[in-house]
Amino acid sequence: MNILITAANSAEAHRLKNQLNTENIILGDYLELPAFMLKSANMIKLPNPASPSYTHEMLTLSLDKEINTIYALRDEERKLLEESKQLFNEYGIEVVHGS
Prior knowledge:
By secondary structure, this protein is α/β, with parallel strands linked by helices. It is built from 5 helices and 5 strands. A 5-stranded parallel β-sheet has the order 3-2-1-4-5, sandwiched between helices. β1 (about 1-5), α1 and β2 form a beta-alpha-beta unit. The protein is globular and about 30 Å long.
């Protein structure tokens, strides 16, 4: 299983990745990422929280990428995922606040 850390272009995301110290970490961001970063298998483009179907897009992405833990670092992502925490829990996906 994998861990998703949002806000991939932030220093906080990279600090958290180092703290967790595991190989099964995927960094993602809905903000623009340099193309060279997206070429890595461990870096992905995330849905925009402004999308009306954000929660379902994140759930689908999590299931497709075998993610069992999401560290939501941006406030807008955290808020939406917290509101849907029960849905994610039903699929065995834990939503965690940032560090």
